[in-house]
Design brief:
The structure is a single chain. This protein is an alpha+beta fold. The protein has two domains: 10-163, 2-Layer Sandwich (Beta-Lactamase); 174-327, Reverse transcriptase/Diguanylate cyclase domain (Alpha-Beta Plaits), CATH 3.30.70. Helix content is 42%, strand content 21%. Strands 3-2-1-6-5-4 form a six-stranded antiparallel beta sheet. A four-stranded antiparallel beta sheet has the order 8-9-7-10, with helices on both faces. α1 crosses α6 (174-191), α2 runs antiparallel to α5 and α7 crosses α8. The radius of gyration is 24 Å and the shape is elongated. The chain starts with 9 loop residues before the first helix and ends in a 15-residue tail after the last helix.
């Protein structure tokens, strides 16, 4: 048996998947309907909408199958998300990757498989897939039909993605951030790994809006967002919590390492201010807190503590003063 390879965008893919807040949720008619249509349209006993998590594939919708998930190691869908194309297995017993797979040799005795990847943004979340217990071909016309059905599933996944994304900066919003953070902190607890939460607030942001206009305020928010994405790692969860407040959750990272990253962000913003010549400077306050499972029962606890640390930073500096009068528009 050949376990599926790990996609090159795995960290960002998993972050996007967790931010959808769909894993381990109750059945929903919008997804269930698609599996019923697929089973009827293709005359197969099993149709699934799968989401490929770190170590498992979980079924958001299923018809013809009793279990809710399998390990990723034995999953066919883990292979299917490695390509943009539909993965078709005519007879799994004749495919070296799957011939000795327990899902082939045991229940549900997979012989035929066809899976279309479901993409959100640029990341593949899982598949809409068809399974049969006997070998069968899959024509070009059938592939087009499966892709059309998969597009409907993608629309529903994208709706969840948009509900978890800030429209201005394209970062995760509070909903998406908290959903991902809960998963990430549970993982850090299991593995005994550190995590640090950094909390940011733009200083003098109201003055930028009042004196330079809301369009310029939006530009400042997007610039700061770009700084966060440029400095922090792809595996770090970066979010706009609301207004001019941002957060980053850094997994497998100590508070000292997080402070170093924040200092790099200050240098990035300083250079951006120097080059932009906007008539004002983007300035920020920051606070960080290390994850302690005995003290932090939830991500909300960490946010409160990091927010308090950020305000201490704000009060201890003069960077929250408005731009000098000479910078005001004429």
């Amino acid at each position: 048996m050949q376990p599926p390879s790990i996609p090159s965008d795995e960290e960002a893919r998993i972050a996007t998947l967790h931010a959808l807040n769909l894993l381990d949720t109750d059945p929903e008619e919008r997804f269930d309907r698609l599996t019923r249509i697929a089973r009827s349209m293709f005359s197969v006993p099993i149709a699934l909408v799968t989401l490929v998590d770190t170590n498992r594939q979980w079924f958001k919708a299923k018809v013809g199958l009793d279990v809710c998930e399998t390990s990723r190691e034995v999953s066919f869908c883990g292979h299917a998300i490695l390509s943009d194309d539909i993965m078709h297995i005519h007879d799994a017993l004749e495919d070296a990757r799957f011939a000795d797979n327990p899902l082939v040799l045991g229940e549900p005795k997979i012989r035929f498989y066809a899976g279309c990847p479901l993409t959100v943004g640029s990341h593949k979340m899982g598949t809409l897939c068809l399974i049969d217990t006997k070998p069968r071909p899959f024509s070009s016309e059938e592939k087009l039909l499966l892709r059309d059905l998969a597009a409907l599933a993608e629309q529903d996944l994208m709706a969840e993605h948009l509900a978890s994304t800030d429209p201005l900066t394209k970062l995760a919003n509070r909903r998406g951030f908290e959903a991902f953070a809960r998963q990430a902190l549970a993982m850090c607890t299991r593995l005994g790994r550190p995590a640090t939460l950094a909390y940011f607030d733009l200083n003098g942001f109201k003055q930028i809006n009042d004196w330079f206009g809301h369009a310029e305020g939006d530009r400042a928010l997007r610039t700061f967002s770009s700084g966060l994405e440029s400095v922090f790692r792809e595996s770090d969860a970066v979010a706009r919590l609301g207004g001019d407040e941002f957060a980053v959750l850094l997994t497998d990272t100590s508070t000292a390492e997080a402070r170093y990253a924040i200092s790099r962000l200050r240098r990035w913003i300083d250079e951006e201010n120097r080059l932009a010549g906007r008539g004002y400077e983007i300035r920020f306050s920051a606070g960080e807190v290390g994850f302690d499972s005995t003290r932090h029962q939830s991500i909300e606890d960490m946010l409160k503590e990091a927010d308090a640390a950020m305000y201490r930073d704000k009060e201890g500096s003069r960077t929250s003063q408005p731009p000098p009068a000479s910078d005001l528009p004429a």
